[in-house]
């Protein structure tokens, strides 16, 4: 199985209502050609092993998102079958690119095929949403608007190929911690000027109409217009927690990126390039300035999780 990571072209976060556990979001996802590879083999047990440059950061116990997907599918279909999974991680861990979600999506498809569950695509998507708000998107891939917690998807039209360079950090940012910081910044009500200075202020309910220019840029396949429309409401919170992120943002701008944005909850910084060659120039600028632990280049949009080989 192969499943892509994602970049949020736009991420708009609403206020947390009283008693609410999750923020209402409007986001536009693009699946990018940075992949998780998952191998699933029949087994009596349910296990996962992990490889890749950041494998040491990934748990292999029941908290691993791939094993959570196994348990969810087994519970939904009433099977006692096992599976031995191996995940080769290409997507940065805790990088805001949905690597764990991609593992869960790939695992759902793999076990569905291995166990011949007969679930429909709609049932798999519903199960995916119980595992995490990004899991339905990485199952579907391409480009989509996500609402609710991000799991309510509407496919979006997109023409052509966009080119990216990503500055990856070894120390990840926890998504819940970034949302807590977002809430703190927006709660600086006693000092509204300070809140605004730090990118806080009153959080407004997200409105899909805010992304009209972005959707037009995608339909036109216009990287310049897309670069100008990139947006992330979590960026200020990610920068508060990790001020060093200002460096890759500035480096990409200086190197002529059409747009640069923190991906999701960060800390990966995504820079939009004019073309493939320019993506390599941006990647070289990240490397030369020492602002990233690792650099990736990729294109998007790409398809979602799929079986690439079967024995
Ligand atoms: P998102 O963009 O969806 O918010 P992310 O890319 O920032 O997610 P992940 O890499 O998906 O973050 O995982 C975040 C945390 O979840 C990791 O720090 C790790 O401890 C835990 N985790 C559990 N299962 C996995 C997995 N299969 N791959 C990566 N991390 C996992």
From TrEMBL:
Residues 214-289 form the GHMP kinase C-terminal domain. The active site is at 6, 134. Keywords: ATP-binding, Isoprene biosynthesis, Kinase, Nucleotide-binding, Transferase. The keyword Transferase applies. Its EC number is 2.7.1.148. ATP binds at residues 92-102. GO terms for biological process: isopentenyl diphosphate biosynthetic process, methylerythritol 4-phosphate pathway; terpenoid biosynthetic process. Pfam families: GHMP_kinases_C, GHMP_kinases_N. It comes from the Bacteria. GO terms for molecular function: 4-(cytidine 5'-diphospho)-2-C-methyl-D-erythritol kinase activity; ATP binding. Pathway: Isoprenoid biosynthesis; isopentenyl diphosphate biosynthesis via DXP pathway; isopentenyl diphosphate from 1-deoxy-D-xylulose 5-phosphate: step 3/6. Residues 64-141 form the GHMP kinase N-terminal domain. Catalyzes the phosphorylation of the position 2 hydroxy group of 4-diphosphocytidyl-2C-methyl-D-erythritol. This is 4-diphosphocytidyl-2-C-methyl-D-erythritol kinase. It comes from Cellulomonas composti.
């Amino acid at each position: 199985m192969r499943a892509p990571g994602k970049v949020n072209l736009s991420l708009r976060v609403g206020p947390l209502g009283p008693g609410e556990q999750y923020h209402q979001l409007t986001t536009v996802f693009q699946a990018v050609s940075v992949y998780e590879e998952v191998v699933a083999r029949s087994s009596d047990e349910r296990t996962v092993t992990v490889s890749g440059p950041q494998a040491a950061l990934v748990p292999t116990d029941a908290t691993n998102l791939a094993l959570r997907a196994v348990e969810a599918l087994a519970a939904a279909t009433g099977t006692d079958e096992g599976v031995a999974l191996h995940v080769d991680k290409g997507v940065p861990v805790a990088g805001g690119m949905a690597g764990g979600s991609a593992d869960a999506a790939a695992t759902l498809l793999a076990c569905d095929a291995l166990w011949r569950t007969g679930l429909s695509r709609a049932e798999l998507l519903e199960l995916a949403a119980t595992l995490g708000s990004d899991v339905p998107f990485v199952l579907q891939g391409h480009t989509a608007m996500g609402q609710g917690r991000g799991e309510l998807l509407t496919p979006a039209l997109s023409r052509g190929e966009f080119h990216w360079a990503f500055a990856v950090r070894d120390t990840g940012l926890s998504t819940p911690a970034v949302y807590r910081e977002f809430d703190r910044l927006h709660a600086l009500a006693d000092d509204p000027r300070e809140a605004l200075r730090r990118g806080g202020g009153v959080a407004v309910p997200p409105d899909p109409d805010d992304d009209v220019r972005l959707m037009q840029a995608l339909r036109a396949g216009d990287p310049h217009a897309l670069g100008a429309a990139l947006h992330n409401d979590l960026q200020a919170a990610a920068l508060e927690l990790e001020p060093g992120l200002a460096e890759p943002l500035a480096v990409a701008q200086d190197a002529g990126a059409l747009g640069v944005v923190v991906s999701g909850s960060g800390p990966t910084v995504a820079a939009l390039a004019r073309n493939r060659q320019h993506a390599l120039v941006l990647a070289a600028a990240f490397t030369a300035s020492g602002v990233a632990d690792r650099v990736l280049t990729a294109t998007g949009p790409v398809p979602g999780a799929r079986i690439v080989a079967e024995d």
